[in-house]
Amino acid sequence: MHKSFLFIVSSHGVLGSSGNKTGSWMEELAAPYWRFIDAGYRVTIASPKGGAAPIDPMSVEDAWISEAGRRFRDDPEAQAAITGTVPLDQIDPAAFDGLFMVGGAATTWDFPHNAALKKLVEDYFPQSKVIAGVCHGVIGLIQATDPHGEPLVKNRQVTAISNAEDVMMGLDKIVPVLPEEMLRKLRGIYTAAAPLAPHVVCDPPFFTGQNPASADPLAVAILDHLRRKAPAA
User: Fold this and answer.
1) Residue-range definition of the domain harbouring residue 148
2) Chain segment 210-233, per-residue pLDDT in tens
3) What span, in angstroms and rounded, lies between the C-alpha atoms of 191 and 199?
């Protein structure tokens, strides 16, 4: 194993016509990032456009930010990684053990139609490499298909931010696509917990989490899977 993992964040920074800013949700980036770093992984952060990737301003407010988020905000290497992301089309798929699609409403604009992300998911699927996503980030799965043109999520157990949570946050009328709606349309076996409650679904190679509260337990589940999969020394 390379012990290298690819984190994918959004390059999009404007919340539709709302006039507000958006970006990746800090908890959904920071909690998994530190889980992987502390487990000895090298983490590379990539985005559709490369360069500085925005963080949702709301996610770093006192009401939302966690200790992991503060650690990420104050760490020079983490800050260098998010302000200098690698363009997705320059990523070597063979260099990583899997990918983690970080959430944030921003992803609904630039994940669903990204050719490089589609190729990565379709490349990793037959290799049984980890394909993970949390909250809105799971929307990155919807364009991926098998050689017969069938959606990769068809008949697979998945979760993502629920329609109820999008409505609760006032996002249902703003974002261009609702993850739960799309996953169901593609015949994924979608489940969710109550709004804001943690919910993780593991159906390898897919590992998905519902919301910010799910980001940390999702990372724990992925790392446990990778440890069990690793060849004995």
Assistant:
1) 4-229
2) 999 999 999 999 999 999 988 765
3) 9
CA dihedral sign, ordered 155, 161, 167, 172: negative
Q: What radius of gyration, in Å, describes the C-alpha atoms of the chain? A: 16
Question: Domain of 104: which CATH number?
Answer: 3.40.50.880
How far is the C-alpha of 146 from the C-alpha of 125, rounded, in Å?
9
* Count of the separate structural domains present in the chain: 1
DSSP lists the bridge partners of residue 81 as none
Query: What does the block give as tokens for 102?
Result: 């970080």
Overall residue count recorded for the chain in this entry? 233
- Tokens at 126, concatenated: 């037959």
pTM: 0.97
